[in-house]
Amino acid sequence: MNSQVLAELVLAVSEEGVVVFDRELVCTHWSPAMERMFRLDVASAVGQVMPAALALPFGAHGDEPLRRALAGEEVHLEDVPYASGADGLGAGTYEVRYVPWRSESGLIEAGVGVLRDTSLRRRAEQRAHETEARFRIMADVAPVLLWMAAPDALCTFFNQTWLDFTGRTLEDEWGVGWAEGVHFEDFQRCVDTYMAAFAERRVFEVEYRLRRADGQYRWVLDRGTPRWERDGRFAGYIGSCVDITDRKELEVDLRRAVSIRDEFLSIASHELRTPLTALRLRLDSVVRSLNRRAPGHVDGDRLVESTEDALSQVGRLTLLVERLLDISRLSEGRLALDPEELDLVSLVRGIVDALGETARLASCELRFTAPPTLRGCWDRGRIEQLVTNLVGNATKFGAKQPVDVILEARAGAARLTVADRGIGIDPQVQGRIFGRFERAVSARHFGGLGLGLWVAKQIVDAHEGTISVESAPGAGATFTVVLPVAAARLARRSA
């Protein structure tokens, strides 16, 4: 294969067009790429004068670049506009380099033009420019503060909303200049969060105070997201800041209100306990006096019954007051435990026996199953409160059916199960029944504050145990409590 054949093969597959013109500016060679680019076949191009007869592709700059090449100069032109086809409707741009073609003796015999179509690149650049322009317009009218950073963590863009907020220029904020507006108490935490996220290429959120144009520091929530090129290369971050000062102030006000409420509940609970205790003592004294009366006295029997009813109501009030006091203690994180070595079987059996009368009044039979003994270290008073809450709920919602209280030893833990056959609990509300003031049924029909299960869970959590429920509407409810037997950590924590 000779060099001429090889050159023709190369030109046939090349994406770059080649045109050769003589000293009279007549086209003598028109490559296949030129045909494709300008939709002009070789027969129509060769023999034509450039640029006169080939004005569509070469008319933009006239014959001046061609003559400079014939004079021995290399001429480079970029983004030369052209029209193509016989109708001239095709359009684009090209990059061209004109060079002289010298004979073996060094004389310039012709000129050569090598062209590369830049239309696609130009259109892509234009689209990118338009996209960037649209982004900047949208960013500048956005109600949030927007920023962008390069892979080196230096910020390269802030929207107009940011600049208006800080009262600074883009040059002021560029790079790390934005950090000058961060409150000195938040600066290190803000920068550490920012740099750690950059190192790990992950989304981050950070709250800090940023100085506003009027000199006031405002709390902002800054959220940054990594950007990636199409080929997977890390391109930096884009982020947004939202002013959350009003929300932070509301949170402070809410915490203050909750603190005041809890303080009120604590004071009210303590104040209510005093007259209730005195009332119970007086009623107990009345009952003892009546029990010493002559038997068979009808009025006396009625008085005893009324007094016992009053004692029952005092008991209910006392329980409500204790629960209110528990709210204030738990809100302050003060559910202290006083663990002691005890037999859980004996403790639970005593509670079940004490609640037997209440269960009979509710037409429920309490059935207790347990091993002979199950010893461990727990807070006696809190366990009594826990079991009383669970059994009390079971008799209240048990629909006059038997209630099973089962105690078992399981792998270093005590397992307490309280199962009723009552109205059951809808699965949709089971996830929130252990919340404060939450209830699975209407208060109008069953009463209560919606605190029993919440307090129960706090007690179980304090003992490092678990509490769960299995239930379905109309199929009863089974509450299961698992309490670790080994409670050395509880003893240390309460010391």
**Beta-strand proportion:** 25-35%
- The tally of helices reads 18
Which structural class fits the helix and strand makeup?
A: alpha+beta
CATH class of the largest domain: Alpha Beta
- Strand adjacency order, main sheet: 2-1-5-4-3
Distance between the termini: 99 Å
Superfamily (CATH H level) name of the largest domain:
Histidine kinase-like ATPase, C-terminal domain
> Do you know the CATH topology of the largest domain?
Heat Shock Protein 90
Major sheet summary line = 5 strands, antiparallel
Mean pLDDT: 80
> What's the gyration radius in Å?
44 Å
Low-confidence stretches: 442-449, 488-495
Shape, please? elongated
Q: Estimate nothing, just give the exact number of structural domains.
A: 4
**What's the number of extended β-strand segments?**
17
Which CATH architecture of the largest domain is right? 2-Layer Sandwich
The helix fraction, in percent, is 40-55%
Describe the structure.
- With 495 residues, this protein is an alpha+beta fold.
- The protein has helices at 3-13, 32-38, 42-45, 55-58, 64-70, 119-141, 160-166, 170-173, 184-200, 245-291, 298-331, 344-354, 356-361, 380-396, 427-430, 443-446, 452-462, 488-494, and strands at 17-22, 27-30, 75-84, 90-102, 108-117, 145-149, 155-158, 204-211, 217-228, 234-243, 339-343, 366-369, 375-379, 403-410, 413-419, 466-471, 477-484.
- 45% of the residues lie in helices and 25% in strands.
- The strands form 4 sheets. A 5-stranded antiparallel β-sheet has the order 2-1-5-4-3, with helices on both faces. Strands 7-6-10-9-8 form a 5-stranded antiparallel β-sheet, sandwiched between helices. Strands 12-14-15-17-16 form a 5-stranded mixed β-sheet.
- It starts with a helix and ends with a helix.
